[in-house]
Design the sequence.
């Protein structure tokens, strides 16, 4: 049985949950831990110690925390292959316009936006397209 721990900073909770759903579909046991700023190394150490042998760690983070978690994971005996870092750019979600297909940048998946090209009002959805590397934006009135 595969076991994956997802560590995520609170602002990337939504991305982490999408990942969780993806992995669960592959019958992988997934656990999400939210990291509240400032991230505490001791807390990470405790989370990692509780992991079964052969577990993998996925990290959703934007900044300094990345190195901190990597070091903690290495110390806890995880090899670099067992640690995957999903580097998140704050304020940089890609939203695919359902009308003109332009990819817009936005700071939040919670807020609607206006397409820069066609002016369509878009609502970011949970639907992530690997092909377009972006979230689908639904047209709203
Ligand atoms: Zn558009």
Sequence:
């Amino acid at each position: 049985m595969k076991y994956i721990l997802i560590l995520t900073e609170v602002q990337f909770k939504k991305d982490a949950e999408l990942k969780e759903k993806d992995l669960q579909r592959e019958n992988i046991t997934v656990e999400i831990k939210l990291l509240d700023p400032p991230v505490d190394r001791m807390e990470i150490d405790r989370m990692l110690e509780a992991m079964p042998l052969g577990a993998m760690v996925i990290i959703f983070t934007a900044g300094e925390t990345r190195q901190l978690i990597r070091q903690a994971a290495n110390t806890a005996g995880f090899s670099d292959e067992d640690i995957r870092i999903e580097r998140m750019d704050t304020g940089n979600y890609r939203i695919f316009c359902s009308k003109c297909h332009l990819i817009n940048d936005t700071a939040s998946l919670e807020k609607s936006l206006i397409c820069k090209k066609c002016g369509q009002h878009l609502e970011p959805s949970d639907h992530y397209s690997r092909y377009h590397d972006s979230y689908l934006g639904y047209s709203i009135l």
